[in-house]
C-alpha cells in the first residue's frame, strides 16, 4: 500500500482535474461527500482518516455517479435533433446517488457549522 502522503497527492490530483472539468463548486461538493477526507478550497487533500484505498474508491464513485448524469444531459440536445429518437429511447440511466445515512448527514451538518465558508 502507498504511503499516506502518496494517497494525498493522488487524491489531490483527481480533485484538481475534476475542478478543471466540472468547476470548483460541484467538484468540492462531491469530494466533500466522502467521509474521511478533509479538502481545502483549492482541492488539496489536507487529511485522510480511514483506509486510503477505500476513500480513493469512494471519491472516484462520487465523480462516476455524476458523469453518468453529465453524459445524459449533453446527449439530450443531440438526440432531440434526430426524428424518432428521444432521450428516453436510449437505454442509459444515470445511477441514483446514494442517500447519506443519518450519521453522515449529521456529520456534514456539523462540518458546515464548524466551517461555514468551506
Structure, explained:
The protein is mainly alpha-helical and 118 residues long. The chain is 58% helix and 6% strand. It is built from 4 helices and 2 strands. It has helices at residues 4-22, 24-31, 52-80, 102-114; strands at residues 37-39, 45-48. Strands 1-2 form a two-stranded antiparallel ribbon. A hairpin with a 5-residue loop joins β1 and β2. α1 (4-22) runs parallel beside α3 (52-80). The model is unreliable at 89-95 (pLDDT under 50).
**What summary fits the major beta sheet?**
2 strands, antiparallel
Structural class of the secondary structure composition? mainly alpha
Distance between termini?
Answer: 30 Å
* Percent helix: 55-70%
**What is the total number of structural domains?**
1
Main-sheet strand order equals 1-2
In DSSP terms, counting alpha (H) and pi (I) runs of 4 or more, how many helices? 4
DSSP E strands, number: 2
Into which percentage range does the β-strand content fall?
A: 5-15%
Low-confidence stretches: 89-95
What is the string of SSEs from the N terminus onward?
HHEEHH
Q: Please tell me the overall pLDDT.
A: 78
Which outline best applies? globular
